[in-house]
Design a protein that fits this description.
This protein is α/β, with parallel strands linked by helices. It has 4 domains: 125 residues, Response regulator (Rossmann fold), CATH 3.40.50; 148 residues, Alpha-Beta Plaits, CATH 3.30.70; 103 residues; 103 residues, Arc Repressor Mutant, subunit A (Orthogonal Bundle), CATH 1.10.10. Helix content is 52%, strand content 13%. The protein contains 21 helices and 12 strands. A 5-stranded parallel sheet has the order 2-1-3-4-5, with helices on both faces. A 5-stranded mixed sheet has the order 9-10-6-11-12. The chain has a two-stranded antiparallel ribbon with strand order 7-8. Helix 10 packs antiparallel against helix 11, helix 11 runs antiparallel to helix 14 and helix 12 packs parallel to helix 14. It is elongated. About 1% of the residues have low confidence.
Length: 522
């Protein structure tokens, strides 16, 4: 806590500073002033909680100073000191709600008691303020939630607004702002909603008159922040933009999000309309980048969908089959641009379209005897697509796989069709512990001895070694995912005997499965 000692006598001030163990009273900062005017300057700068002041001083006495203090620092506790038993001064001190009146010559024990009383008074005052603040916040939060739905009891809502000093007559104008976070609000480090919102601009100037915005906010499902902006007049676009920009500046350093601005409505009972319009806009957040503001009635940034879905698939597949790289990329980039910022397309429909594009590419790759490196048994294509939160992420996923497709087309020679069939069969059955050379041979309708000889001559590797290496590569990818236990991984890659899996893994990689996981953990 902070203490200010005000007295025109240097000896009195220095004596108080040196003779009392202020740290034991939790007083960490002590300031000094020789008269009321200098004291006021220090009070404005440092906001001391306790002021220990003489009454009779030059330029401005203690009573005059206290009157000013009640204007600039109303919560400060004042203790007066004086060598004059003047009833008028005492009356003034009581009127100004001084904590104590200490007579001179100073008795340090009496000063200590007075300061302790001032500390107790301050702490009680802070406790009451916090309690009032929490009750007010609880009421505001409850009211903000009520306003999401049609009002059943408008009178109680109006009474609650009055308790919060929010004017509702003439009819207020309401604009709902929604923020969708990409992770749990509780898990976002350094995000203090109350502090961030308190620092936002909640006022604007209209026709030369300053108007106030009264905010009510609540959270929903630990994922959404819903903020109702209530104002006596329609908030100008320039003021809304200023508000949204400030909100972005608060959120950008700590999290990823989408902001949607609902329609402005007139009348507190129409708040659900503004909320629903913001919620509807958030459904199109998939088509925006992270940390975007989605505005109502906003024209999409791209052109209309330039082809129907069947046309896109047909053009994409034909261009892939002919290895026409430029046409393939032109096709999907036009699709991406036409969807970017869209508000009239469902995200699931587009995810389904991209899924069909992925399948078409995989089928084409197989026709060329190309193995695209996919984590088929761990994360299916659909898992990857479903996990994409934005169109940009989904498109980047497709681009990455296409890059791989064309790179392999350019670098690989035509693989023997039988070897290709063998590798394809292994990729689909490696998790089966009983998979054998006999099974593979029967699949390609050749004898086991011929299959082994052919595979070795074409690849330089025995069939059994290829199967082992394939399983170990899959195991390495799984080990980098902490969700999977090592025993489960062993079974997933075709080893029911955990000890045998561990020995095989170490012989191949040079590390045990647990050592590998520790070394390459994300």
């Amino acid at each position: 806590m902070k203490l200010l000692i005000v007295d025109d006598e240097d000896l009195t001030r220095e004596g108080l500073v040196s003779t009392i163990d202020w740290s034991s009273l939790n007083i960490n900062y002590i300031y000094q002033a020789d008269d009321g005017l200098n004291a006021l300057a220090l009070i404005r700068k440092y906001k001391p909680e306790i002021i220990l002041s003489d009454i009779r001083m030059p330029r401005m006495n203690g009573i005059e100073m206290a009157e000013k203090i009640r204007e600039i620092a109303p919560d400060s506790s004042i203790i007066f000191m004086s060598g004059y038993s003047d009833k008028e001064y005492l009356k003034s001190a009581i009127k100004l709600k001084a904590i104590r009146y200490v007579e001179k010559p100073i008795d340090t024990d009496e000063v200590i008691e007075a300061v302790k009383e001032a500390i107790a008074h301050f702490e009680l005052s802070e406790l009451n303020k916090n309690s009032q603040y929490l009750r007010r916040q609880e009421l505001a939060n409850k009211l903000a939630y009520q306003l999401l739905y049609p009002l059943e009891d408008s009178k109680s809502v109006l009474d609650s607004l009055k308790q919060l000093d929010i004017p509702v007559s003439p009819p207020s104008h309401i604009t709902t702002v929604m923020v969708k976070f990409t992770e749990s609000i509780a898990n976002i480090k350094k995000l203090s909603l109350e502090e961030s919102l308190a620092e936002l601009p909640f006022s604007y100037t209209l026709h030369g008159k300053k108007e106030t915005i009264y905010p009510l906010y609540t959270t929903k499902q630990d994922e959404y922040l819903i903020l109702h902006l209530i104002s006596p007049d329609v908030i100008p676009d320039i003021s809304l933009n200023r508000f949204l920009l400030s909100l972005e500046e608060k959120l950008n350093p700590v999290c990823r999000y989408f902001i949607a601005l609902g329609r402005s409505v007139t009348g507190i009972e129409k708040t659900p309309v503004s909320y629903q319009s913001a919620l509807l806009l958030l459904q199109s957040s998939f088509f925006y980048d992270y940390n975007s503001v989605i505005l109502p009635q906003e024209k999409t940034s791209g052109s209309p969908l330039y082809e129907d879905i069947s046309g896109i698939l047909s053009r994409f597949t034909d261009s892939l089959s002919n290895k026409e790289k430029e046409k393939v990329y032109d096709c999907i980039n036009k699709l991406y641009q036409s969807l970017k910022g869209s508000q009239n397309v469902l995200a699931n429909h587009i995810k389904d379209l991209y899924y069909k594009l992925f399948i078409a590419m995989n089928d084409t790759a197989l026709s060329f005897h190309i193995h695209l490196h996919t984590d088929d048994s761990v994360y299916s294509i659909w898992d990857s697509i479903s996990g994409s939160n934005t169109l940009t992420e989904l498109h980047a996923l497709l681009i990455d796989r296409l890059d791989q497709f064309f790179r392999m087309c350019e670098n690989s020679m035509e693989e023997n069709s039988t070897v290709f069939m063998i590798k394809d069969y292994i990729s689909r059955n490696y998790s089966n512990e009983s998979l054998s050379v006999k099974d593979i041979s029967e699949h390609v309708f050749l004898s086991s001895s011929y299959v082994c000889t052919l595979f070795k001559s074409e690849t330089g590797q025995t069939l059994n070694q290829y199967l082992t290496d394939y399983r170990i590569e899959k195991a390495k990818k799984l080990l980098q995912d902490p969700r999977y236990k090592i025993t489960d991984i062993s079974e997933k890659v075709g080893y029911t005997d955990g000890n045998y899996f561990g020995k095989t893994f170490k012989r191949t990689v040079g590390l045990s499965p647990s050592e590998y996981r520790e070394k390459y953990k994300p």
